[in-house]
Amino acid sequence: MTEWAIKDLAKATGLTSRALRHYEHIGLLHPSRVASNGYRFYGDAEVARLYRILSLRALELPLPTIRRALDDQTTLADAIEGHLALLEERRERITEQITDVRRVRDAVRKGRTMPIEDVFSGVDDSRYEKEVRTRWGDAAWERSAKRRAEMSGEQRADDDRRSRDVNAALRAAADDGEAPDSSRFQELIAVHHRWVTEQWGGKAPNRAAYTGLAEMYVADERFAAVYGGEANAATIRDAIRIWTDAHLA
């Protein structure tokens, strides 16, 4: 059996020895043996496992999730095959983005107007990463990113359509002058809260997070534009506050 010292494995992967020791500490990757002098060595099985760890980390999955997903019996060939499948799925997504961006470019060149959602349809979701991590923490981003990464291209398209429908319905209610406490608005907010829960990887926003999101709709002109401007966003924020008072402790 071929084996590698921890320093050689660190050099080959770009990880530090400290990171490899951290992986060992949390039960993610153990060395095949530890010499009497404390030096750690890794064999073929451990290298295969590390390959899978790094390919899953590229999808920004949290380490505890990776640990649960791993199978110690996976060979290096199987790990590479799984990584290849992930890369091919990512390539399909990139191809879809190229198509979207070309469509937007052609529309802009011809002077056609487009909904703001369509303009940004070809932009990768990672543009929101820093903001989400700052406002709601690393776990929130990682849950959301994992959810999107596990979708097929068709599922992502359906997810995007649902997002547009949910937000378009809120905008329409505000455009129509609906009162924030009307039954129509409150029913739409219930749908919106379920949609946010889905987008956040199944973790429902609590009272503080949901009202904070509503405030951001008004304060951030990018989000306000989705709802037709700051006045509409303020109406939607008020509707969210009313629904929150009634349904979230």
TrEMBL record:
InterPro entries per the UniProt record, alphabetical: DNA-bd_dom_put_sf, MerR-type_HTH_dom, MerR_fam, TipA-like_antibiotic-bd, TipAS_dom
Keyword Zinc listed: no
Coiled coil residues, start to end: 77-104
Keywords: Coiled coil, DNA-binding
Superkingdom per UniProt: Bacteria
SMART domains: HTH_MERR
Every HTH merR-type domain range: 1-72
Xref: PANTHER family: HTH MERR-TYPE DOMAIN-CONTAINING PROTEIN (PTHR30204:SF93), REDOX-CYCLING DRUG-SENSING TRANSCRIPTIONAL ACTIVATOR SOXR (PTHR30204)
Protein's name according to its UniProt entry: MerR family transcriptional regulator
Organism: Microbacterium aurantiacum
